[in-house]
Design a protein that fits this description.
Layout: E1 7-12, E2 32-33, E3 36-37, H1 38-48, E4 53-58, H2 63-68, H3 73-82, H4 85-95, E5 99-104, H5 111-116, H6 119-122, E6 127-130, E7 134-136, H7 143-153, E8 156-162, E9 172-178, E10 184-192, E11 203-211, H8 214-219, H9 232-240, E12 248-252, E13 257-259, H10 263-276, H11 281-293
Parallel strand pairs: 1-4, 1-6, 4-5, 8-12
Antiparallel strand pairs: 2-3, 6-11, 7-13, 8-11, 9-10, 10-12
Helix pairs in contact: 3-4
Catalytic activity: alpha-D-glucose 1-phosphate + UTP + H(+) = UDP-alpha-D-glucose + diphosphate
EC number: 2.7.7.9
Family: Belongs to the UDPGP type 2 family.
Amino acid sequence: MEPAKIKAVMPVAGLGTRFLPATKATPKEMLPVVDKPAIQYVVEEAVAAGIRDVLMIIGRNKNAIANHFDAMPELEGKLTEKGDDRKLGHVQHSSSLADIHMLRQGEPKGLGHAVFRAKSHVGDSPFAVMLGDDLIDERDPLLPKMIEVNEQKKAMVIALMEVDPEQISMYGCASVEATDDPDVVKILDLVEKPAKEEAPSNLAIIGRYLLTPEIFDVLEHTQPGKGNEIQLTDALKEVATDDDNVDVYGVIFRGRRYDTGDKLDYIKAILQLASDREDLGPDLRPWIKDFAATL
């Protein structure tokens, strides 16, 4: 399937409680990572993979996200009057990235429920689910490989990442079978946050999924699980272990990923991305070294 026919679904209805009080009135997806809100990186990733249709599943107090991706004639007019083409370009860029749609989740029943709400929008085609907490470095594209595997296998595809076995209890974990591609595995089972001793591998699920419409039939009867929410992992586990359903494969991501869902990792992400930038890195990197020497 052409990437342009694949739609992206981005669940952004979470409350962002780990970042209170910053997220009391500001959506966590709008917190800046250097000089762009986190959600813009995710939209840009989708667009770079050829996806032009993005559905955001939003909750209450998420109007700032819609505003960010909308045109702002008053601001654009003032920047035009000033002749500030650079800033004008930045403002217009976010509103011209893709066709972005907003849909209310309604009741906050979990990630699985948010994905289910996208059913009428995505129709009968495969679609990408992209979580805003995971930023994938643009130099290490992940979605194109997932789209390729979906096309070859006619299967659902999830993104996996090797983690320290000591950390596997923080993630959903995959039981896998090797294929002839070292970066692609077949998913046999999924275990949510297993103890180190019980984990079937050190492959953790990260926030990128390439799903097929069969997921909706499963989500429709998936019962609430952890946190009394409908979990997407539970639905994927059912698909992976059902011989009568489509297969589930995993793409092992070995590139740069930034976790913005945790305060410490969020700060690390800003420093990593800023230090790599041509406009900031030359001054920032020496400062980081000097600062580290004082600790």
